[in-house]
Amino acid sequence: MTRQSSFSLRAVALAASVLLSASANAALFEDTDARRAILDLRQRMERQGEEIQNFQRNLLEQQNQLEALRAETARLRGEKEELSQELSKELRRAKEQSQGVDDRLKKFEPTAVKVDGVEFMADPTETKAYEEALSAFRKGEFVAAANSFTDFIKRHPSSGYVVPSLFWLGNAQYANRAYANAIGHFNALLAKAPQHLRAPESMLSVANCQLELKDNKAARKTLADVSKTYPQTEAAVAASERLAKLK
Question: Reduced to 3 states, what is the DSSP secondary structure of residue 203?
């Protein structure tokens, strides 16, 4: 082999060695980049995994809070309904109590009444007492009626029932033959209300009591006064007839 050929072979071998070394280095560089890329990707995935876990935990906490809010809302709604029911009950109870008070007050409030054509205000207690006394008179219980009317006049001297009470008291006493007392109450009526519907009859009753007491002179004068004071009344007609019989 010539020297030139030997040199050529060595040159080729050297070149091949250089190429192999370069290829190995290039492969080594490429493998390092790949591992670095994989590591980076793995780290990103781990970070994303942590973020996902954090998101899931936050989401779970929010769901728990939402459930707690729903439970609290339901509880408050239930309490509201209970309070509303209690309030309704209390309002009904207050209304019933108020109505009861009003009803009780009405039992004591004066009301308009009309007796013998005269209208006036009277307490329910007055009306009840007067009607009870009048009921006793109508039953023929003249002693009880006289006592009731006497008590009524003492208890309610300003009542509109006083004038009719005087009339019925006088009649009850007349029935009990207490003529003097009857005259006193009939005259009290005439002095208090000379224009009252019961006045002509009361004056005529005075004359009747005087006749029962055998005081004919006084009876004749009273009968004449009836015709003079209350002409064109039934009492005046009756007084004229009795006066004519006395003459």
Answer: helix
CA separation, residue 89 to residues 76, 79, 83, 111 (Å) = 20, 15, 10, 33
Q: For tokens 């989401």, what's the residue? A: 59
Per-residue confidence (pLDDT) for residue 23, from 0 to 100:
55
d(CA 207, CA 7): 188
Q: For residues 81 and 206, give the distance between their C-alpha atoms in angstroms, rounded to a whole number.
A: 76
Task: Say how many C-beta atoms besides its own lie within 10 A of residue 92's C-beta.
Answer: 10
Kindly state whether residues 180 and 119 are assigned to the same domain. yes
Which token pair is 30? Answer: 């490429």
Taking the CA atoms of residue 166, residue 167, residue 169 and residue 170 in that order, the dihedral angle to the nearest 10 degrees is 110
The answer to whether 122 and 111 have CB atoms below 8 angstroms apart is yes
Asked, for residue 93, whether it belongs to a domain, the answer is no
Characterize 58-81 residue by residue with b for buried, 16 or more Cβ atoms within 10 angstroms of its Cβ, and e for exposed. eeeeeeeeeeeeeeeeeeeeeeee
What CATH number is associated with residue 130?
1.25.40.10
Specify whether the CB–CB gap between 165 and 149 falls below 8 A: yes
CB 167 within 8 A of CB 200: no
* Nearest Cα to Cα of residue 201 among 232, 234, 174: 234
User: Is the pTM value of this prediction over 0.85?
Assistant: no
C-alpha Rg value of the chain to the nearest Å: 62
Going by pLDDT thresholds of 50, 70 and 90, the confidence category of residue 40 is: confident
- Quick check: is 61 in a domain? yes
Same domain, 178 and 120: yes
